[in-house]
């Protein structure tokens, strides 16, 4: 194959600045390569073999990048864990992924330590960046290990956990090809070439930088950042995203591409005109967004400000998707684009039969050559498939010329600030409260986040509804459910609308909140 792939580029040009941490520290490719190599030697010394997995509970930055680069050249699975989760939720992922080593940054030390106990992980396999009780310092693992490339290298992969509608997340696991890591990385860069993105300086192109705006535990953030690095782009990390800081970093590093969600656009557009005018963002060529439908007026204003660099796509961790160039979107405002060249779309009715053009149905996708399974859940893997296509339960329609529009989602998933939130998981926790007879959780419109979480509660007999009860219910979620999953508000109802078979009529509760909106996404 060609000349792409981090390890190849780092050996050819070790002085290339490959990453910039949130505090501004710059790391050369040679330095990152040596760190990743030492980690592989250290973990092999611990007995890790091809196909094993490691987990990282680490903030955005070089520590997580080294875990990623080590796993992807040693034939391992790397699972970056959502740091908003609680100890038991993290522990479930560590145990389910069968992690042979768990890396925790001291910032998340308390929940990380709870997770390691929950997963019953051997203390010799727990490593800390900084001080975490019961964890060995990371330095112990890599000290004295050689900087040289390890032998018998083969491609690894990330295994992200996607929340299941039943509330337990599932690892999306792809079969490892057993090929050279750089060849595998080069295949990964296909994703970026769909948008027309070109290689950076060490790979024979111009100096380019990719800005990481969101948490690295999101599949897309890892995929786009990793692919940009394998193309020779400098990764510029942000810790906590800030609108003005984002403009500053674009100007300072000549950022040419990034991955965003509509919430970012909304915050950028809210900046005062004089602040927006202070920064030169002309280096930006590909500002790619996804994760939630972007309101048409907001995207229009971004195109007016940043020019024709705003690209959109629709996809899932499981593979396949659509892409909309700025020109496509201007011609079809609101579309999420056309199928990728290697992907196919199928819109079907409830019986699994294809529907006519322009008719709403469940969206199924498939991508050539990407077989996946939900780890340890053959049944769920099969259930979401139809003649080789799979669905995440979204509903939409296709136009005559193949453009996809999203209309609603079957599974009632809530998308808030680009994060997927599943009501069933929240309902399961609230139901446990002794003063709650019944509960329904769903998304209602939120101009900043896309959706916010609303809970409707039927109080137990003899319990008075009101602010005190709402506060008591929320307080009971402490330590059991990540704060980002807590309802923003709780309303009370005398009797929950249910069918005779017990099925909750969630639409009845939800519709009044959406009645003034064009689409109930």
Automatic annotation (TrEMBL):
Is Nucleotide-binding one of the keywords UniProt gives this record?
A: no
* UniProt record similarity statement: Belongs to the ATP-dependent AMP-binding enzyme family.
The annotated regions of Polar residues compositional bias extend over 152-166
Q: Which organism is it from?
A: Actinomadura fibrosa
Cross-referenced Gene3D superfamilies: 3.30.300.30, N-terminal domain of ligase-like (3.40.50.12780)
Where would one find coiled-coil regions in this protein? none
Q: Which residues form the AMP-binding enzyme C-terminal domain?
A: 425-503
UniProt KW keywords: Ligase
Which region ranges are annotated with the description Disordered?
141-173
Q: Where is the AMP-dependent synthetase/ligase domain?
A: 7-368
This chain's protein is named Acyl-CoA synthetase
């Amino acid at each position: 194959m060609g000349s792409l792939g981090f390890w190849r580029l780092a050996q050819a040009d070790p002085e290339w600045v490959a990453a910039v941490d949130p505090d501004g520290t710059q790391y050369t490719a040679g330095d990152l390569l040596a760190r990743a190599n030492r980690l592989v030697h250290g973990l092999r010394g611990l007995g890790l073999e091809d196909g094993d997995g490691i987990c990282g509970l680490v903030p955005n930055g070089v520590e997580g990048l080294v875990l990623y680069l080590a796993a992807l050249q040693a034939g391992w699975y790397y699972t970056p864990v959502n740091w908003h989760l609680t100890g038991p939720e993290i522990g479930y992922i560590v145990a389910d992924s069968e992690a042979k080593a768990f890396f925790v940054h001291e910032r998340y030390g308390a929940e990380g330590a709870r997770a390691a106990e929950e997963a019953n992980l051997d203390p010799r396999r727990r490593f800390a960046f900084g001080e975490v009780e019961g964890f060995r310092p990371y330095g112990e693992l890599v000290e004295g290990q050689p900087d040289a490339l390890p032998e018998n290298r083969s491609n690894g992969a990330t295994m992200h956990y996607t929340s299941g509608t039943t509330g337990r997340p599932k690892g999306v696991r792809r079969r490892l090809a057993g090929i050279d890591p750089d060849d595998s990385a080069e295949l990964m860069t296909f994703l970026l070439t769909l948008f027309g993105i070109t290689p950076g300086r060490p790979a024979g192109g111009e100096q380019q930088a990719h800005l990481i705006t969101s948490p690295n535990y999101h599949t897309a953030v890892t995929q786009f950042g990793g692919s940009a690095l394998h193309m020779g782009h400098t990764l510029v990390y942000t810790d906590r995203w800030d609108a003005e800081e984002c403009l500053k970093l674009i100007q300072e590093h000549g950022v040419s591409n990034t991955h965003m969600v509509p919430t970012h656009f909304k915050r950028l557009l809210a900046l005062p005109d004089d602040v927006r005018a202070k920064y030169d963002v002309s280096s930006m060529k590909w500002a790619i967004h996804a994760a939630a439908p972007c309101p048409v007026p907001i995207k229009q204003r971004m195109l007016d400000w940043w020019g024709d660099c705003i690209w959109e796509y629709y996809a899932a961790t499981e593979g396949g998707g659509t892409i909309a160039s700025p020109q496509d979107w201007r011609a079809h405002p609101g579309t999420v684009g056309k199928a990728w060249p290697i992907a196919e779309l199928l819109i079907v009715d409830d019986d699994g039969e294809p529907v006519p053009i322009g008719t709403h149905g469940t969206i199924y996708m498939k991508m050539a050559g990407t077989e996946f399974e939900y780890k340890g859940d053959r049944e769920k893997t099969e259930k979401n498939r139809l003649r080789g296509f799979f669905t995440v339960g979204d509903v939409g329609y296709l136009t005559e010329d193949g453009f996809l529009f999203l209309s609603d989602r079957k599974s009632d998933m809530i998308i808030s600030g680009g994060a997927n939130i599943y009501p069933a998981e929240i309902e399961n926790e609230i139901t446990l409260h002794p003063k709650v007879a019944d509960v329904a959780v769903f998304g209602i419109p939120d101009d900043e986040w896309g959706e916010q979480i609303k809970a409707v509660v039927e109080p137990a007999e003899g319990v008075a509804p009101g602010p005190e009860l709402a506060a008591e219910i929320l307080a009971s979620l402490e330590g059991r459910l990540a704060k980002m999953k807590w309802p923003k508000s709780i309303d009370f109802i005398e009797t929950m609308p249910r069918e005779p078979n017990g099925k909750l009529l969630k639409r009845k509760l939800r519709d009044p909140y959406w009645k003034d909106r064009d689409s109930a996404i």
